[in-house]
Please model this.
Amino acid sequence: VSMQEAVAATTEHVNIAYLYEGTPAVRCGFRHGGQFVATWKCKDGYASITTNTQQAWDDLRAWMAEDGMAGDLMDEKYNNRFILRGEHSSHIEHLIEAWALGHTRNEIAEWGQSRHHPWGPQATPEELLDNPQLRERDFFTRVDHPELGATFVHSGAPYKLALSPWKLRNAAPTIGQYNAEVYGSELGLSIEEMEALANASVI
Model:
């Protein structure tokens, strides 16, 4: 998979809309143009629910109806999942918000996943550190920071490739640690110029 294509895909319609229609991107939150993706507060935290298919939207409404929390969502006018991005979005969000509070993160995640929907629990930072899958893959790694005399837990490789192994070699740089290399060697500033910039609190 091309990494460039993967990154380009995250812009989705934004570039095309601007290049061909002159329409600038605006913040839309979870009111996605193509699907409904949101994180909802529930009994014990937050859970992510997406209606990326019509079946996911139908299943969500059916579950809410079983719980007696669907309101009028079973009406025919709500059948199409794209209704979520229209004039009824606030009303729908209010109903889902009230319903989600009656379930735990794992209840929502397991119910959705059992029906092949990409729903999942929102983990806390502490839970991520103890996540069995991340631990098994050695995602987190401990890095020594000599300047601070301490060891910190850092996130590791976002992906692992068999022929080009990835390793975290250094701790995060301290403020100004590479000023000489960047401003001096790369940009050609003299020591006097860098001192003047430092005295002026520019660098």
